[in-house]
């Protein structure tokens, strides 16, 4: 029961059957993408390397969690 609740809650953060909610999620994602691109454009080479390393670490963590 708790696993189902957690899955539905987490999926609700990025997916919805409600058209208005889907539109709000799309706007939010676009705003986050724009902010990320702006931040990355302002970063120097060392900061970009650090960001890439962190993101790769997150991706590795998610792959490990997904395999369980």
Which characteristics define this entry?
mainly alpha, 3 helices, 68 residues, flat, 84% helix
How are the elements arranged and paired?
Blueprint: H1 2-12, H2 19-42, H3 45-66
Task: Describe the protein.
The mean pLDDT is 90. 84% of the residues lie in helices and 0% in strands. 0% of the residues are buried. The chain has helices at residues 2-12, 19-42, 45-66. The longest helix is centred in the middle third of the chain and has 24 residues, at 19-42. The protein is mainly α.
Shape designation: flat
Q: Pairing-aware structural class of the strands and helices?
A: mainly alpha
Order of helices and strands: HHH
Radius of gyration: 16 Å
Bin the strand percentage.
Answer: under 5%
Helix content: over 70%
What is the CA-CA span between the terminal residues? Answer: 18 Å
The major β-sheet equals: none
Quick description:
With 68 residues, the protein is mainly alpha-helical.
